[in-house]
Design goal:
Blueprint (H helix, E strand, L loop, with lengths): L2 E2 L8 H4 L3 H8 L2 E6 L4 E3 L7 E5 L3 E7 L5 E7 L19 E6 L1 E7 H10 L1 H27 L2 H16 L3 E3 L2 H8 L3 H13 L3 E4 L2 E4 L2 H7 L3 H13 L1
Antiparallel strand pairs: 1-2, 2-8, 3-7, 4-8, 5-6, 5-7, 9-11, 10-11
Length: 236
């Protein structure tokens, strides 16, 4: 279970976009918590009991592909929320929501979230726009997983995670990354080794450090830039 935190900074970008009065109203219905890796917040088919506004945590959205196989289709960090289907009037989770990076978040009950969407127009506007961004990310991931090389996909994933972690360094094992991307572990090891040789990243005992961000962006597929462009189109 997530444990309650006594202090969580207001660094969620959706909440930060709200006028001060609206943000205060929304936060009054939230509680600050600490999300812990590898906590599962929901499984496919579960009722969505809460929405989460990550501030320093990252939530991975995974879809089952038969048997024990899962594939990451999107990430939710402080740019968005986890629990978006509630905004569409659907209370059933289509994904496994897994805490990928531990950290703080704001949590709000499903009923409170629906009420706030009805009475705080600016919140509804922000969430609607984020749903568009999430859909764009899902569409981009579908093509990326089918057509792009493992190294390109790994570079994209590292950049997306670094953006949400607000740090060039974070913890991820080859095994977990293979699980997220739906590829064999040997493919991840080969891609990571190639990027280490080119001094794009450093890797030691599960800790990744991006050494050359511009170089890593060049190594990534165009999907990373498309993800950024989708967010900028609707929010900037």
């Amino acid at each position: 279970m997530a444990r309650v935190s006594r202090a969580a900074p207001i660094t969620n970008r959706l909440l930060d976009r709200l006028p001060a009065k609206d943000r205060t109203r929304v936060l009054a219905a939230c509680e600050p918590i600490e999300l812990l890796f590898p906590e599962v917040l929901s499984e496919p088919g579960d009722s969505i009991a809460h929405v989460y506004f990550p501030t320093g945590s990252i939530i991975s959205l995974l879809t089952p592909m038969g048997g024990k196989n899962l594939l990451e289709v999107a990430l939710a960090g402080n740019e968005g929320i986890c629990g978006a289907p509630l905004a569409l009037g659907v209370a059933i989770s289509p994904v496994r929501a897994l805490v990928q990076v531990s950290g703080p978040a704001w949590r709000m009950g499903a009923a409170d979230f629906r009420r706030k969407l009805a009475v705080v127009p600016e919140l509804r506007n922000c969430i609607d726009r984020y749903v568009y961004v999430l859909m764009a990310q899902l569409i981009q991931s579908a093509g990326c997983n089918r057509f792009h090389l493992v190294e390109q996909r790994v570079a994209r994933w590292l950049l997306m995670t670094a953006d949400r972690a607000h740090s060039p360094s974070f913890h991820i094992t080859h095994e977990l990354l293979a699980y997220m991307l739906g590829v064999r572990r040997v493919g991840i090891t080969e891609a990571a080794s190639a990027m280490q040789t080119r001094k794009l990243i450093g890797y030691k005992r599960g800790n990744v450090t991006i050494l050359d961000r511009k170089g890593l962006e060049r190594a990534s597929c165009s999907c990373y830039r498309s993800d950024l462009a989708a967010y900028e189109r609707v929010f900037d």
